[in-house]
Amino acid sequence: MVRVRGGGVAAAVVLVVMFGAGGCDGTTLGSAGPEESASGANGGANGGANGGGGGAALAAVDSLTVKGRAPKTGYARDRFGSAWADTDSNKCDTRDDILIRDLAGVKFRSGDDCKVASGELEPDPYSGKDVKFTRGRSEVDIDHIVALSDAWQKGAKYWDPSKRIALANDPLNLRAVDASTNRSKGDGDAATWLPPNKAYRCTYVANQVAVKKKYELWVTEAEKAAMKKVLSGCGGQKLPTGGNPTSAPARFHAS
After folding, report:
1. Residue 174 has what pLDDT?
2. Per-residue DSSP letters for the chain?
3. Integer Cα distance of 195 and 128 in angstroms
4. Is 90 helix (H, G, I), strand (E, B) or coil?
5. pLDDT of residue 34
6. Mean pLDDT for all residues in the chain
7. How far apart are CA 112 and CA 7, in angstroms?
């Protein structure tokens, strides 16, 4: 037996994450993610259609440091701590926090307000299609919008482990998405991978810019050019803000 919690939104996540999504306008928090209703996933395309570039997200691209991609040597997932650590101390692991935030019609395991049993992406932002989530199956992934391997090659290798753990569990850098679409991304940046759903690209790239700016990660020349190309057609795209602190609590450790 499972129970439904209204809206599928965790209060702890709602309070800490503010997201300028949906192209030109910041909308309200909904099943598609922070400050983005399910219909807001199409806002990026609408923003481009409404005209010119500009906007905080595009302006922020020029604040990012440009360097070449460093070698991947030394990268391992455990350099960013154990997966889905409860760094916000709300008694739910990070994966379930994001499922609660992003899925519609969330149902929980009986007697557990954290463990999501089922729900649906309406729609999945990367593919634009509706995707059902059932615990124990692999239709839905939690994507690191800035991939951890990409972060490692663009500054995270030199960080204190606490900062790497924070990045890996920051709601600003996480989104529930269609698993098969996500797995085509690998550790790609904006120069090598964009969501097939073109209506979501403004939001997606703005989110990558926000994460890289927040954590002081650098970008390559090709990546910067790709970010500017997308955002120049997004008509005043806002820069997402919020998420967790950039240092995890001292009780968490990484190799």
Report:
1. 98
2. -EEE-GGG--HHHHHHEE---STTS----BTTBTTB-TGGGGHHHHHHHT----SHHHHHHTTS-B-PPPP-TT--GGGG-STT--TT-SSS-HHHHHHHHH-EEEEEETT-SSSEEEEEETT-TTTSS-EEEETTS-SEEEEESS-HHHHHTTTGGGS-HHHHHHHHT-GGGEEEEEHHHHTTTTT--TTT---S-GGGHHHHHHHHHHHHHHTT--B-HHHHHHHHHHHTTSSSPPPPEE-S-SS--TT----
3. 9
4. coil
5. 41
6. 84
7. 16
Position 163 scores a pLDDT of 98
- Structure token digits, residue 135: 């615990």
- Give yes or no for residue 44 having a pLDDT over 60: no
Tokens of 70: 């460093």
Q: Read out DSSP for 97-157? A: HHHHHH-EEEEEETT-SSSEEEEEETT-TTTSS-EEEETTS-SEEEEESS-HHHHHTTTGG
Arithmetic mean of pLDDT, 212-234 = 98
Q: pLDDT tens, 50-105?
A: 345 569 999 999 999 999 999 999 999 999 999 999 999 999 999 999 999 999 99
Q: Which residue has the tokens 């890289």?
A: 212
Which residue ranges make up each domain of the chain? 2-242
Give the pTM. 0.82
Token pair for 141: 């992934």
Interacting residues of 6 by C-beta distance below 8 A, sequence separation 6+? none
